[in-house]
Design a protein that fits this description.
The chain contains 12 helices and 10 strands. It has about 375 residues and is α/β, with parallel strands linked by helices.
């Protein structure tokens, strides 16, 4: 029956052989700029003025200092050009799994929409808004580790400090994880011996990449107009001067008050307390591991002594048992959290040093000006 049915079916026609695709060769003048195999290392990160404005606006409007988003662009001849960005929603009260799925759906929807309108949809990293320069945390490290494994050139982290922006200094820094840290991260081993072999400390987790900001000619011309003095008959009649500025001068830098100094001290104290708590947990686990190892060594020594006595009496020695099965010796605790907390303490301390130094200079200047 099966043979009859097979014979009654039409003979399948032979498909024509597939034609090999033909690729156009890259011109010699562009061979050094177009890096298909991602062999040219990144030497600089270039942010468009639009990206800078979006990140500053997001950091200002975000309810907390945990604002973050994705960076879009292209790497060309060793320069990572970031041309666009969009924020990612933050779900504070939702579960971690639910929040992760919601963010993934939003990210896929945004990238699909950008592709439909012929916009940049190539993810090159992410940005993180922080305060007082403390951006070391587990979430940032995990996200960047995933990006460096999947993205071209590994992607970058753009860190924006909103506390510096409030003072009039737009702070943007670009980072990526070091090769030694990535090796330890892939092995999931941050024990003391691993840190020593990889020469890891909190300052060697990330390496900084030079960053520059690019503005288009129209934006540059507009900024030059705002900065250059102009003559206005109306303003000269009001102010008694023919030269005026489009942006009025600000004297907020002369304010002697240090409103953020108290908060900075509190952050330093909290970071130190967190570090001491983490070190206490590590010390407790280390003591527990030491006790289990002593028990295992005592058991092995006792068994060897009993076997020696049995051999002297002409008896068969007792079989050796697996010590790891009898005694559950915990693994050595990870020191990654301690390193990240040390990085936060260092960042808060440097921010405190900067703000306190500026305050001292202002006070000495005011004292010298008053003639006291």
């Amino acid at each position: 029956m099966a043979a009859a049915l097979a014979a009654s079916l039409p003979t399948p026609s032979s498909a024509p052989p597939p034609v090999a695709p033909v690729y156009e060769t890259i011109p010699a003048s562009m061979s050094t700029a177009i890096d298909i195999e991602a062999e040219i290392p990144l030497t600089c990160v270039q942010l468009d003025a639009l990206v800078v404005a979006k990140i500053v606006q997001h950091g200002r409007d975000a309810p907390s200092a945990s604002a973050h988003g994705l960076l879009l662009g292209l790497d060309l001849d060793g320069v990572l050009e970031v041309s666009n960005s969009f924020l990612l929603p933050s779900h504070v009260n939702d579960d971690d799994e639910k929040s992760t799925k919601s963010i993934a759906r939003y990210q896929a929807s945004m990238l699909r929409s950008l592709k439909e309108v012929q916009g940049d949809d190539n993810v090159v990293g992410f940005y993180q808004v922080t305060t007082l320069g403390a951006f070391y945390n587990q979430t940032l490290v995990d996200t960047q580790a995933i990006h460096q494994e999947r993205l071209r050139h590994g992607g970058v982290i753009i860190v924006h400090d909103i506390s510096q922006t409030v003072r009039g200094n737009a702070s943007f820094r670009a980072f990526k994880l070091t090769a030694s840290f990535m090796d330890a991260y892939k092995r999931a081993n941050f024990s003391t011996s691993s840190l020593i072999s990889h020469r890891l400390i909190f300052s060697s987790i990330l390496e900084e990449i030079p960053l520059r900001i690019r503005t288009n000619p129209l934006t540059s011309a507009f900024l030059n107009v705002l900065a250059a003095p102009s003559s206005s008959p109306y303003m000269s009649a009001q102010l008694g001067s023919a030269d005026t500025l489009a942006i009025p001068p600000s004297f907020s830098v002369l304010d002697l008050g240090n409103s953020g100094l108290t908060r900075n001290l509190e952050q330093v104290s909290e970071a130190i307390d967190s570090y001491r708590t983490e070190e206490g947990n590590v010390a407790y686990l280390s003591r527990q591991i030491g006790r289990e190892k002593v028990r295992a060594e005592t058991y092995v020594a006792k068994r060897k002594e009993e076997n020696a006595q049995r051999v002297a009496q002409g008896l068969n020695p007792l079989p050796e048992e697996d010590v790891n099965r009898l005694f559950k010796i915990p693994a050595e605790p990870s020191r990654l959290e301690s390193m990240l907390l040390l990085g936060q303490v260092d960042a808060y301390a440097k921010s405190l040093e900067s703000s306190a130094g500026i305050g001292l200079v202002k006070m000495y200047g005011a004292r010298a000006g008053s003639g006291v």
